[in-house]
Amino acid sequence: MAGVLVASVGEGWCFLLNAISYIAVIVGLLRMTLTPHIRIPLPGSALTGIVEGFRYVRCTGPVRAVLLLLGLVSLMGMPYAVLMPIFADQILHGGPRGLGLLMGAAGVGALIGALVLATRKGIRGLGQWIAFAAAGFGLSLILFALSHRFWLSMVLLVPAGFSMIIEMASSNTLIQSLIPDELRGRVMAVYSMMFMGMAPFGSLLAGALAHRIGAPATVMLGGAVCIVGAAVFRWHLPAFRQEARQMIVALQVAGGEPPEEMSGQASVVAPQAS
Question: Which of 41, 52, 96, 226 minimizes the number of CB atoms within 10 Å of its CB?
Fold first, then answer.
């Protein structure tokens, strides 16, 4: 929507509409009625808790692998957006209107990906989705970098946006399905660090590389790295099944499920987590 609006009314109105949209979020938060929650203080200092969260991620294979791939995609793939003005102006000769349409095409793909994920009712196969989405994102970036036709480039950004949202949202869902409640906040903080925290460093790296080798080569390099990362993740995916099974069984025990139900569900859910 922002891409279309930039092309039609300019950037200023987009910033204004974005600010107004936060009113709905604030109203929604104020209308929430939360059930009473007993807060259990953690032993040790806040720093000890942070270290424990990082230690959990480092020692838990499935969570560590998902976060590493997410960080790699954020570092090497996501910065294509900061180079989009170069493509729109110097390569595709679309100007500001072309930039809005290109970003809008990526947004359409992301919206489709979000709707597809919304139809899922479980975590079956999410590991496969993450691997294929990361590879699809990298391939879309490579093809986009090779294109010199505006409409073709616009079409190629649709699967790029689709793959990007599938990879990141699926990673979020899978991680939250595997981690215990007492570590959820700290592990999701690491997720946010890998998702949002790596992007500025990726933008800095992309700008430096584009200055030396050009924007198309930089985007192609980022896409190739995403594909390699996805291949490595997919190669190690079967090895995480047993560990994922144990994690899910532990969560079920903590939730008080009967052993007979737990054992039956674990055999089904563990392959889903892969």
Answer: 41
